[in-house]
Amino acid sequence: MTDSSLPPPGRDSLTDDLLWRGLIQDSTGLDELRELLDGGSGATYYVGFDPTAPSLHVGSLMQVTMARRLQLAGHRPLLLVGGATGQIGDPKESAERTLNPPEVIAGWVERIRDQLAPFVSYTGENAAQLVNNLTWTGEMSVVEFLRDVGKHFPVNKMLAREVVRARLETGISFTEFSYQLLQANDFFELHRRHGCQLQFGGSDQWGNITAGVDYVRRRGAGPVQAFTTPLVTKSDGTKFGKTEGGAVWLDPTMTSPYAFYQFWLNVDDREVDRYLRYFSFRTRDELEELAKATAERPAARLAQRALAEELTTLVHGPDETRQAVAASQALFGRGSLDELAPETLRAALTEAGLVRLSGELPDVAGLLRESGLVSGLKEARRVIAEGGAYVNNNRVTEVDAEVSSTDLLHGRYLVLRRGKRSFAGVELGE
User: Fold this and answer.
1) Of the chain's two ends, which shows fewer C-beta atoms within 10 Å, N or C?
2) What pLDDT score does 6 carry?
3) Is the fold of 14-231 the same as that of 353-429?
4) Would the pTM count as exceeding 0.85?
5) Residue 258 annotated as lining a ligand binding site
6) Which of 39, 190, 50, 51 is nearest to 129 (CA)?
7) CA 102 → CA 52, 92, 142, distances in Å?
């Protein structure tokens, strides 16, 4: 069914823009979804985040930016933090999840609620609202859950879910097996309490999401719609959002804004156009123009820079982005190190390799060796003699050159560089 009042398919339709960006993988029906998203009346939608860690990571950005995208188009977001479902855990194919203490989960709920706040607006006609499924789930007794929710779920359909089938041989607890019922009930409660008409999530949640759509129908409510976004992958097969240091978190105390910026700046050429479509709020025309400019000047990495600056600004704000850009330039001699905040400088040097020294500082040759930029003093002296050694972006030409306390940035840091691109840091401790 298609409403004649809808805008024609094309570049200006929200649904067609989402399809062009590759953001819709599965749906309960494209015609129905188009009617809901492009009809002009504004729909209430929800997306959920379970508190399985003290912070969201970049893998959550697909859902966070989608929530923002839909609100900017005139729809109303309900951001659900799973204070109840987070205590249960969605089944994994590999093994049973470790259950965290309720008080730990409660703390994570508050942190994630605060973390979601900057991505949407809480004012206006389509103001966002934060909700916690512990509000309604915590009130239910076991008998109420079994009578009012459980009786609407055929076990044969639950067993057909792929992740459940994968766990049948190794074993799955009733706790994790019941997760689908809790998530489905969330959709019903949000529909009943807030008029929620739409749910979206990652494609790995399709079974849970369609169970919710069906449950709302079985309870005589609705109609409601749903869609999933694709799982973000890397071209080499490794997991998106992982680096050698671990996950890339949205919390600046867990992943610094500089490291966050560098993660996007270092995206592979084969992936950057796709990531821009997924995460950027630039228009289709702007993205196509950027792709053309990047193809003409690939060495400039224009697409990566645009992606890194936009997402760092979205997550951490413009000031931190300016610091991250300034640090990237200054460390390679294209800006002033003195203008970097100590937190940004330390974060950047930590990414490169930060050596902590105490007591009297060695000479420049010794610093190069201690930092790992050279293998020994003989090589260090050769690099200095050939003009390839820098301290705080100043070339050192004397093989026995020393540094003094006045050379320390913020009273404790030195930036060492060998050649154009290899650098490391030294921090003077007590």
Assistant:
1) C
2) 39
3) no
4) yes
5) no
6) 190
7) 11, 20, 18
Q: Per the structure block, which two tokens stand in for 12?
A: 């200006």
What are residue 149's phi and psi, to 5 degrees? Answer: -110, -55
Q: What is the dihedral of CA 315, 317, 319, 323, to 10 degrees?
A: 10
DSSP output for 292-347: HHHHH-GGG-HHHHHHHHHHHHHHH-HHHHHHHHHHHHHTTTSS-GGGS-HHHHHH
Q: Is 179 among the annotated ligand-binding positions?
A: yes
Fold category of 353-429 in CATH: 3.10.290
Angle formed by the axes of helices 284-296 and 269-279, nearest 10°? 160
β pairing state of 44-49 and 76-81: parallel
CATH of domain 14-231: 3.40.50.620
Query: Residues 6 or more apart from 4 whose CB is under 8 A from it?
Result: none
242 is in an annotated binding site: yes
DSSP category for residue 361: P
Residue 46 is labelled as binding a ligand: yes
For residue range 213-261, list pLDDT tens digits in order: 999 999 999 799 999 999 998 877 777 876 666 889 999 999 999 999 9
Look at residues 215, 207, 98 and name the one whose alpha carbon lies nearest to residue 163.
207
**Domain boundaries along the sequence of the chain:** 14-231, 232-335, 353-429
Query: Do the Cβ atoms of 161 and 7 come closer than 8 Å?
Result: no
Tens digits of residue pLDDT in 193-218:
999 999 999 998 999 999 999 999 99
Element housing 246 (H / E)? strand 246-247
Alpha carbon distance 28, 213 (integer Å): 9
Give the residue ranges of DSSP H helices in 102-205: 102-116, 134-137, 142-144, 155-159, 162-167, 174-177, 179-194
Give the integer Cα–Cα distance in Å for 377 and 51: 50
Q: Is domain 232-335 classified as CATH 1.10.240.10?
A: yes
